From TrEMBL, chains A, B:
Keyword Transcription: yes
Cited PROSITE patterns: HTH_LACI_1 (PS00356), HTH_LACI_2 (PS50932)
Gene3D superfamilies reported for this sequence: 3.40.50.2300, lambda repressor-like DNA-binding domains (1.10.260.40)
UniProt entry keywords in alphabetical sequence: DNA-binding, Repressor, Transcription, Transcription regulation
Pfam name, any one: Peripla_BP_1
Protein name, as recorded: LacI family DNA-binding transcriptional regulator
UniProt keyword Chaperone present: no
Organism of derivation: Blautia obeum
GO terms assigned for molecular function: DNA-binding transcription factor activity; transcription cis-regulatory region binding
Length: 325, 325
């Protein structure tokens, strides 16, 4: 097996220089880098990452702990986060906690055992003190974990306001918003409060329907739509995340309701599903690319020793008006 | 730091027994396992997976190399594969090769460097001999890599036949099928051949439109729909994967065409998108759960030393008839 010593000899540089090139550390001229990389290629040198990280104490692994990669928001974020980490030489462990605390603990233990350099967390089934006890760099993706862990999220207050204004503009009388498990602390609940508040100020009835954890599956949304319209036939406006309102739209069209004449619809997120619906959906679009940029940037800065605990709220959130309002 | 020796002492068993429990190897009675796990919990023992795998030569890492986790088929498969691997104690490295050969090589090198125990590959931009040269257990997800690498896929011949019969039954005159990059070898092309063949036998014109690699992005499908209908206004049937035909449906409805009166539509895959469309889409549903079961099963058997090179074709593929045919 080729060693780093042989690479250094072939390139005519010191072992430290080869190590610097490999670890992307310190100043290396383009010429020196070219020599070292040429030597590596010529000798077909394969650094043993496992042995290397065993000695360097850095593994270049990042854990991504989310409820489920098949949830559209997390599909969009996972793809983007992985691409950005890969460009920086990091590898991603994907962990789907499935909204179960036991799985979350198991995954966190796995990540500790594998000595990841940092963790991005987008789920929250444990207690605040459990998250505070994590001694690794952690950044939260749109969830509130503890005071010391920075959160990256969209400006949900603005997003909530943009959505509500659509229902006010259309003179709706009774609007329902379907929200996730209220026991999970996430900044996105700000939008739900803003939403209720603005409707109230405009004397529009607001029904808040909190979906239970067991209902948070793609197969259940259609039957939830059925349930709410049987209970509240007077609803003339619906607000929730893309996939939920897409199912509501499908249910309403199936039973012969007209959109937007009978019911106005606004989605939240602006992923693929929102863009594909017919009639074209009015939705609030989250800045997925920027969220991914920021969360990776903060995590890598924390890994490099910066102390960051303040959160980032991205104001680049906008309304895309379709034919459902 | 707590060592395995202290755990053994606390549990009143040998170090070998603790190791067996940790590695799930050999026969261990429920009582002994309980003792060991109780001692680990009491002492808050955290096995150092990195050190452990450095000595055992097994890492419990699996690489999943796919084009992009945001492509619906791969979203569905990634979620399911990760869940199954996690249950067996394996961790997943997610690699999005983005259809670029350079990224694929880089990711494969990364996986070798990290000494993964096995790789699931669902992309194909390298030469057959490159894949044949991989000395690790590899299973292919719906792509043809080399003779020695088993493929797990649906019965695409049956899927293609089920789809074609919908257009024949509806007496279509001119049907287009939109297919992916024909340079990528995948068993799914069997369905495209079956499709052309059956249409020909029934004297129905079949237009084969092969999307270039650069067109294989979600943003491009709508403009492809526009392009093909401007070039071939006589088209009265469209067949492609869910997301492509969903965009075609959206385009047709936007320009005022009636579905299914003017154009019949059949999707392939049966993911979320297919289930959400209105009018409800007729689609061919792939058995995602079974594909995930089989691919994980074969990979783990290969990791445990079994020689498996024969491929698996899953016949559990079915037509779900909606309102688009």
């Amino acid at each position: 097996m080729i060693t780093i010593k042989e690479v250094a000899k072939e390139a005519g540089v010191s072992i430290t220089t080869v190590s610097r090139v490999m670890n992307n550390r310190g100043y290396i001229s383009a010429e020196t880098r070219g020599k070292v990389e040429g030597a590596m290629k010529k000798l077909n040198y394969q650094p043993n990452q496992l042995a290397r990280s065993f000695h360097s104490k850095k593994t270049f692994y990042i854990g991504l702990l989310i409820p489920d990669v098949t949830i559209p928001f997390f599909t969009e974020m996972t793809g983007r986060i992985e691409t950005r980490l890969h460009k920086q030489g990091y590898k991603l462990f994907l962990c789907n906690a499935k909204g179960r605390g036991t799985d979350e603990v198991q995954y966190l233990n796995m990540l500790f055992q594998n000595k990841v350099d940092g963790i991005i967390i987008g789920t929250h089934m444990l207690k605040t003190e459990d998250y505070r006890a994590i001694e690794l760099p952690v950044v939260a993706l749109d969830v509130t974990l503890s005071d010391s862990i920075p959160i990256v999220s969209s400006d949900h207050a603005k997003g909530g306001r943009l959505a509500t204004e659509e229902f006010v503009r259309n003179q709706c009388k009774c609007v329902i918003q379907l929200v996730g498990d209220v026991n999970i602390k996430t900044p996105s609940f700000i939008r739900n409060n803003v939403f209720s508040q603005i409707l109230k100020e405009n004397n529009i009835r607001c029904i808040n329907y909190s979906m239970k954890n067991s209902e948070l599956s793609r197969e259940r949304y259609y039957s939830i739509a059925k349930k709410i319209f049987e209970e509240y036939p007077q609803i003339d406006g619906v607000f929730s995340t893309d996939l939920v309102v897409a199912n509501v739209m499908k249910y309403l069209l199936d039973i012969g309701k007209k959109i937007p004449e009978d019911v106005k619809i606004v989605g939240y997120d602006g992923g693929d599903v929102a863009k594909l619906m017919y009639p074209s959906m009015t939705y609030v679009e989250q800045p997925f690319d920027l969220i991914a940029d920021k969360i990776v940037d903060i995590l890598l800065r924390k890994i490099n020793g910066e102390k960051i605990s303040s959160s980032i709220v991205l104001p680049e959130i906008k309304l895309v008006r379709g034919m459902t309002t």
